[in-house]
Amino acid sequence: MQAHPRVQQYLDAIGITPRRVVDDFERFVVQRYGAAGAAFLDLSHGRADATQEEADYPQLVERLYRAKNASWELSRDVTSQYAGRQYANYLSLFVAAKEPPTAARIIDIGCDNGIATCFYASQFPDAEVFGIDRCAEGIKCAEHLAHMLGLKNVNFIHGDAFASGLESRHGETCDLVAMTLSGYEALEDPRLTNASLVAFLHRLVSPTGTLIAMEPRMTAMLDEVNKQFAEQVLVNLFFDDSGGNEIAAKVMFAHKQQLGRDLVLHDD
Q1: Pick from 102, 94, 95: nearest CA to 209
Q2: 263 within a domain of the structure (yes/no)
Q3: CA distance linking residue 75 with residue 71, whole number of Å
Q4: Could you tell me which of 4, 67, 141, 264 has the fewest CB atoms within 10 Å of its CB?
Q5: Any idea what the CATH number is for the domain that residue 201 is in?
Q6: 176 and 201 assigned to the same domain
């Protein structure tokens, strides 16, 4: 999938570069970022060797995100290596789908370093855009990116989306709620089930708004979206995982009621 011109222009502007050979990338990270780069690589290797069933796996992932987001520059370079194609393809799909067609309020749950959030803000300059994430370092990177791009319509919140009061402030008012590759991490919280997570998202989306949920594979969470939302379209999205292997992620566009807005991928 070739990146949409607007997406490629955005990724170029923020410094996302082509993927390197793994050994070259690891040498580059250590040479450029020293101890911070080495700490990220150690945790990245540890995650690759771990399994999600291990008791300390959530803590390992938390430390990895904190290390990756030690600075905007390191976060950007790691994103280029491990998620550059993901962002190029996902954001191109977002542009082509034109869902939602208009937006006054957008919430990006699990926004990490703000790359997708800031793109939403740039595409909907009159919208009020929020990104929320549990990683304080990620929020600092996101704020740096928004400032770098001169965006005035985006704000970032450090905290747990499900205990932050989002629902009381913005329930039924969000024209776009995005949760991309963060649902399975949210479900590591024992307080949440697939049903309660999707019900929370459902309560945020406006009556004519859109939920975009992306998961690395067809999951029980996406099955739950099928149950709780009246209208859904599922799209395969190809990109590389952290090991460089191509995967087909699942992107679901969902509406609370039958709106008849068939997903048509536009070329303009």
Answers
A1: 102
A2: no
A3: 6
A4: 264
A5: 3.40.50.150
A6: yes
pLDDT tens-place string over residues 102-149: 999 999 999 999 999 999 999 999 999 999 999 999 999 999 999 999
Q: How many domains does the chain have?
A: 2
Global pTM exceeds 0.90:
yes
Please check whether residue 38 lies inside any domain of the structure: yes
Residues 129 and 178 in one domain: yes
**Same domain, residue pair 72 and 165:** no
Residue 128 covered by a domain: yes
Tokens standing for residue 175: 């024209």
User: How many Cβ atoms sit within 10 Å of the Cβ of residue 112?
Assistant: 26
226-232, Cβ contacts within 8 angstroms, sequence gap of 24 or more: 227/198, 228/195, 228/198, 228/199, 228/202, 229/198, 229/202, 229/254, 229/255, 229/256, 230/255, 230/256, 230/257, 230/258, 231/255, 231/257, 231/258, 231/259, 231/261
Which residues of the chain have a pLDDT value below 50? 266-268
